[in-house]
Amino acid sequence: MKSWKENIRRIDPYVPGEQPDLEDMIKLNTNENPYPPAPGIIKAMKEFDFDKLRLYPDPTASMLTDSLAKYYHVDKEQVFVGVGSDDVLAMAFLTFFNSKKPILFPDITYSFYEVWANLYKIPYERPQLDDNFKINKEDYYKKNGGVVIANPNAPTGIYENLEFIEEILLHNQNSVVIVDEAYIDFGGESAVRFVEKYENLLVVQTFSKSRSMAGMRIGFAIGHKDLIKALNDVKYSYNSYTMNQVSLCFGVPAIEDDIYFKETLKRIIDTRERTKVELKNLGFSFPDSMTNFIFATHPQIKAIDIFRALREKNIFVRHFNLSKIDNYLRISIGTDEEMDKFISALKEILC
Ligand SMILES: *Cc1c(COP(=O)(O)O)cnc(C)c1O
């Protein structure tokens, strides 16, 4: 092997869900929001000053951090924004997880955590979920270099209440605890309310799912100002301008239009609850989801076979070829019409 090849940083990358671009497809594979972004964004787009693109954007992203601070009732020094929550989380791993002790996250969770841990050479342990895919909080009551919990968890969809999260915080006051709340808006209660009480808590959220802006790439973290300062120090050591001018301008109306936001959330939650009933009638079982997806398995037909049959019909869901979950499908919640078509397709496949 050529010596330069020996020095390459080798990593098994995260594999995102596919982004097919077919005319007549139902895309339920990446937990995108089926509804358009807030109407205020169209206005912002029309009024956008293109001359601004000549200039570097505000490195502090203050338009967006101010707007988020106001919405979540925290100081702007407690808010950090990034290029999707993936960017925020990657930065947080790099910033906070520098111990020789392993960081802890569940064996079944957002698979990017393991990729970042490998990329940054952070030691880690993955305590197992129980047989019902629930997190055993006691697994996190030991010495560690940090804790990462997705709440609700992905891809299971299971939400744990704030008492559960607080127990984990109480037992981990000497390490940074990241709570990834990518799906919190779909019915859960945010741990943001704990950031005053626990200065080692970093709550991470995204505009990609509940705010219909996966294509814009905006994520954010809320925590104690010392955590946010540390994140910014790493950011400025890496790329000062993560947030482009367009994201800054379009992100603000996405926060401000709260009525539209709540309306679309309600529609997705209603559709999710209806889909749960339909899936149950077809014999599927699934953990109770508080997200915009359902993680379902069928007692007779293998998940991979259903996945393939749906694909034939241009209906895309997500299948993970990983042990323990390879007989499950993660089904994102689309519009009512999309879910009706999806259920009809399932009926054809199952009979
Ligand atoms: C989707 C998702 C993210 C990343 O979302 P971004 O689009 O990068 O903001 C992070 N964590 C979990 C659990 C997710 O499902």
UniProtKB/TrEMBL annotation:
UniProt keyword list: Amino-acid biosynthesis, Aminotransferase, Histidine biosynthesis, Pyridoxal phosphate, Transferase
Domain Aminotransferase class I/classII large: 24-346
EC identifiers of the protein: 2.6.1.9
GO molecular function terms listed in the Swiss-Prot or TrEMBL record: histidinol-phosphate transaminase activity; pyridoxal phosphate binding
GO BP terms, alphabetized: L-histidine biosynthetic process
Major enzyme class: transferase
Pathway as given in its UniProt record: Amino-acid biosynthesis; L-histidine biosynthesis; L-histidine from 5-phospho-alpha-D-ribose 1-diphosphate: step 7/9
PTM-bearing positions, type N6-(pyridoxal phosphate)lysine: K209
Catalytic activity entry: L-histidinol phosphate + 2-oxoglutarate = 3-(imidazol-4-yl)-2-oxopropyl phosphate + L-glutamate
Pfam families from the UniProt entry: Aminotran_1_2 (PF00155)
PROSITE patterns (alphabetical): AA_TRANSFER_CLASS_2
Swiss-Prot/TrEMBL cofactor(s): pyridoxal 5'-phosphate
Subunit structure: Homodimer.
Family that this chain belongs to: Belongs to the class-II pyridoxal-phosphate-dependent aminotransferase family. Histidinol-phosphate aminotransferase subfamily.
The protein's name: Histidinol-phosphate aminotransferase
Organismal lineage: Bacteria, Bacillati, Bacillota, Clostridia, Lachnospirales
